[in-house]
Design goal:
284 residues, alpha/beta, Rossmann fold, ten-stranded mixed sheet, 9 helices, 10 strands
């Protein structure tokens, strides 16, 4: 099937961001789309580029993931991410992961979202944009926070930095505890992604096991922030448990417990120090 490539200016929420009245201070926002062989269909993604984007320069890239029930437009529509990266020499890619948990589905063979994230998407981005493949990071919120850590641990050669805000790291190991809301509402998507107990997906994608399978030398820098008033009551204890394990294994990580809930207000605030740390780690 022929690849469908489309560069479209977003007329609604993905508008050009102004730096005062200086048009040269704009961040460039685009909605792009391409055919994904791993999924057998075309999907959209949002792209933020430096105002003075120069194809002769190779830019660091951040793959920024949305949460459950979200989409490729969430970060630009609900935060000031375009303003925060306005003067930063990097490209931000925001794909559409549906409610996939960013894994290859155990129940639907055609929903290979892990393959999409680590193969199709980077391959396309590296052809369409000028990317420094040695300075790639991945981050996300909630389901996307889980996805960012999981993908970085499973593919450490691709990402040098992984960030999670309010990460849903309880899953898949916590799937058996679906008796309380709001965790219970996630169960249909979790089962679609990870299958039942008799399958292997639950152990394959378990962060509490994955960190052991990555050598300390190849481990990406792990950054996590968790709101102390988060409505998903299992998330905070899971973060404390995981960071205890990382510390015991001598793995470099950064963890912040800060006031806030499972909300866009929290993520809009916490994406700013995450971006700052990514720049420090990747040195740009």
């Amino acid at each position: 099937m022929k690849t469908n490539l489309c560069f479209v200016r977003c007329a609604l929420f993905l508008c050009l961001i102004f730096s005062g009245s200086d048009l040269l201070g704009q961040s460039i926002a685009r909605v792009d789309s391409f055919y994904m062989p791993s999924l057998g269909r075309t999907k959209k993604l949002s792209v933020l580029m430096p105002a003075k984007y120069d194809p002769r320069i190779h830019y660091p890239v951040l793959y920024l993931l949305h949460g459950y029930s979200g989409g490729y437009d969430n970060w630009c529509a609900k935060t000031k991410i375009a303003e925060y990266v306005r003067d930063v020499p990097m490209i931000v890619i925001m794909p559409d992961g549906e409610n996939s948990w960013y894994v290859n589905s155990a129940m639907e063979p055609n929903d290979r979202f892990e393959d999409y994230m680590v193969n199709d998407l980077p391959n396309y981005i590296q052809k369409a944009y000028s990317i420094d493949t040695m300075k790639q990071g991945i981050a996300g919120l909630s389901m996307g926070g889980y996805g960012a850590l999981m993908l970085a641990l499973r593919h450490p050669a691709k990402f040098r930095f992984a960030g999670s805000l309010s990460g849903a790291i309880t899953f898949p190991r916590g799937m058996s505890d679906t008796s309380r809301q709001p965790e219970r509402s996630l169960f249909p998507s979790l089962r679609h992604a990870f299958g039942d107990k008799s399958g292997t997906a639950r152990t394959t994608y378990d962060l509490f096991l994955l960190y052991r399978q990555t050598s300390k030398e190849s481990m990406p820098y792990l950054y996590m922030a968790m709101g102390t008033q988060d409505g998903y009551r299992s998330f905070l204890p899971a973060h404390r448990a995981l960071t205890d394990l990382l510390r015991g294994a001598g793995i470099t990580y950064e963890y912040h417990e800060t006031p806030g809930g499972h909300s866009w207000q929290y993520w809009d605030a916490e994406i700013q120090p995450l971006l700052k740390r990514m720049r420090e780690v990747l040195k740009f």
